[in-house]
Design brief:
Length: 474
C-alpha cells in the first residue's frame, strides 16, 4: 500500500516555488485546446461511453504500441476480442510502462475522471472496470460533461475540406458552453502520388462544394469555397501534417499540367509531386493570410513504415515514428516565398525530431514581422515529444532562441476525450522547470513576474493569438 497517492497535489513539482507557481497561477486557468483529432460527431451527439475500452483504448495508438511491445496479440489491441479482455490486456501491460509517459497519463486520467487512486494492474483491473463503467453512465462523463468538467473554453477539431461541416453546425446550435470549431486540414489535396485515392478525394470535394473539378483553377475554386465555409463555421486555423516543407516552386503552367495528368491517374515523378505540393502550399497560405487565420505545420513524422501492418490494420494504427528529414533549407525556402509574396500568415511549426529543436526555434526568428507579437510560433512538444523530457526540450530551445513569454502553450493532439489532463501535465512540467530556476537564482524570485508569464502561456496567449470567435457565435 502506498503511503500517499502516486498522483498527489504536488505531482511533478519538485520545489516550493514550483508548487506555488502551479497552484496559484496555472491550475485554475481554462483550456483552449486549439489542435486535436476529436470526432465532431461524438460532440454533436453528446456521446456517452459504455466502458473504459470505448473512451480510453479505441483509437489510442500510444497504448497500442505499448501493448505490442509487451507481447500482446493484435486481437486484443485492434482486433475483435471483447472490450473487457482488451482492457485487461492493458491493465496487465501498465506495470511494464514504468518510465514511459503512459504510466503518468494512465494514473492521472484515472484520478481526474473517476477519483481512482489505485495503481492499475491485473489485480485492480476488475474493480476499476466496474467503478468506471458505473461512472461513465452518468451525464457528467458524456462528451459535453467532460468538456464542462475540464473547463474547456474552446477546442478545434481537424477536418478535411471534402467533409461536410454538418456536425459542427449541430454543435453550434446545441447550447454547449464549449465552443467547437473546425480546423482546415487539406493534406489530401497534395497526394497526387496516390492517384486512386486522390481522384476519389477530388470527387468527394466536387460533390461537397458543387464545383465541377476538371482543372487546377476549378480545384482551387472548390478549395476556396470550402475554406469560406470553414470560416463561416468559426474556423480560424488550418493545419498540415507533412514530412517537411515543400519549396520546389513550379510555374503556374507547370502546376496545371501536373494536375491535369493526375486527374487521368498518372503517377507523378517525385519531382513533379514536390512541385505540385509546393504550389498548393503557397495557395493555402494565401487563403489563410487573406482571412487572418493561423497556419499550423506538423513536420517530421515518417508514417506507415510497416507495410504488412498497413495492409492488414490500416493507417494511423501505431506504425509511425520520428523521421530524420532535412528541414532547414526547405522550411526557409517556403517561409521566404510566402514573405516575398506578402502572404505569410500567423504560423505555428511543430517539430517531431528533437535533433531539430534548435533549427525550428531559430527559424521562427527569421520571419517575425515586428507587428504581431509571436507571429511565428515554435509549437509545443508534439507526438513523441509531448512527455516530460520533450516538453522541457521544446521549452528550453524556445527560451534560448526566442520569447517563452509569447508562447501559446499546450494542446492535446488527441483522439480521446480522456486526454484533457495532458494540459495539467504540461502545466506541472512548466512550473517545475521555472520554479527550479527561481530557486537557483537563474530567474528572479518574483512570483508576479514569473506567475503572470505562466498564466499567459496556459491560456491568455492562445486566446489573443488565435482570435477565435469565442463570443456570440451564431
Amino acid at each position: 500500500m502506498l503511503s500517499k497517492p502516486f498522483i498527489h497535489d504536488n505531482f511533478l513539482l519538485g520545489s516550493a516555488s514550483a508548487e506555488r507557481l502551479y497552484h496559484e497561477y496555472a491550475h485554475a486557468e481554462p483550456i483552449l485546446d486549439y489542435h486535436n483529432h476529436l470526432p465532431p460527431a461524438d460532440i454533436a451527439n453528446n456521446r456517452s461511453f459504455k466502458n473504459l475500452h470505448e473512451i480510453w483504448l479505441e483509437g489510442d495508438h500510444y497504448k497500442w504500441r505499448a501493448l505490442r511491445a509487451n507481447g500482446v496479440d493484435e486481437s486484443l489491441i485492434t482486433g475483435s476480442a471483447p472490450p473487457y479482455e482488451k482492457f485487461l490486456a492493458w491493465a496487465k501491460t501498465v506495470p511494464n510502462t514504468l518510465r514511459n509517459p503512459l504510466y503518468h497519463w494512465t494514473h492521472l486520467e484515472l484520478q481526474r475522471y473517476f477519483g481512482i487512486f489505485d495503481l492499475l494492474s491485473e489485480s485492480t483491473a476488475k474493480a476499476i472496470w466496474d467503478q468506471t463503467t458505473e461512472a461513465l453512465a452518468q451525464p457528467e462523463l458524456s462528451t459535453h460533461g467532460i468538456l464542462n468538467k475540464f473547463n474547456v473554453v474552446a477546442l478545434c477539431t481537424t477536418d478535411d475540406p471534402a467533409d461536410p461541416l454538418t456536425h459542427h453546425h449541430d454543435i453550434a446550435k446545441s447550447g454547449l458552453k464549449t465552443k467547437v470549431f473546425p480546423a482546415f486540414r487539406p493534406d489530401k489535396a497534395l497526394a497526387i502520388n496516390t492517384p486512386k485515392a486522390f481522384i476519389a478525394w477530388v470527387t468527394a470535394l466536387s460533390i461537397q462544394t458543387e464545383v465541377v473539378i476538371d482543372d487546377l483553377d476549378s480545384l482551387k475554386a472548390a478549395l476556396r469555397k470550402t475554406h469560406d465555409q470553414f470560416h463561416d463555421a468559426g474556423s480560424r486555423l488550418s493545419d498540415h501534417g507533412l514530412p517537411h516543407c515543400y519549396a520546389n516552386f513550379p510555374t503556374e503552367s507547370e502546376a496545371k499540367a501536373i494536375f491535369t495528368r493526375a486527374l487521368t491517374g498518372h503517377v507523378p515523378s517525385p519531382e513533379d509531386h514536390a512541385k505540385f505540393a509546393s504550389h498548393m502550399m503557397v495557395f493555402f497560405a494565401q487563403l489563410d493570410a487573406e482571412k487572418g487565420w493561423t497556419k499550423q505545420l506538423h513536420l517530421g513524422a515518417i508514417r506507415a513504415t510497416n507495410t504488412r501492418a498497413l495492409a492488414t490494420i490500416g493507417p494511423d494504427t501505431g506504425f509511425d515514428s520520428i523521421g530524420d528529414y532535412s528541414q532547414a533549407a526547405a522550411m526557409a525556402g517556403y517561409l521566404d516565398r510566402l514573405e516575398q509574396d506578402g502572404i505569410l500568415p500567423k504560423l505555428v511549426i511543430y517539430n517531431n525530431n528533437p535533433a531539430d529543436n534548435y533549427v525550428f526555434s531559430t527559424m521562427i526568428g527569421n520571419f517575425q514581422d515586428g507587428k504581431v507579437a509571436g507571429k511565428i510560433q515554435f509549437g509545443s512538444g508534439w507526438w513523441y515529444l509531448d512527455a516530460k523530457d520533450g516538453i522541457e526540450w521544446q521549452l528550453n530551445a524556445l527560451s534560448n532562441n526566442g520569447l517563452l513569454s509569447r508562447f501559446i502553450g499546450m494542446l492535446t493532439d488527441s483522439r480521446s476525450f480522456m486526454s484533457y489532463p495532458r494540459h495539467e501535465y504540461f502545466r506541472r512540467v512548466l512550473c517545475n522547470l521555472l520554479g527550479a530556476e527561481m530557486d537557483r537564482g537563474e530567474i528572479p524570485l518574483d512570483f508576479e513576474l514569473v506567475g503572470s508569464m505562466v498564466r499567459n502561456i496556459c491560456f491568455e496567449n492562445a486566446r489573443q493569438y488565435l482570435n477565435l470567435p469565442l463570443e456570440n457565435r451564431a
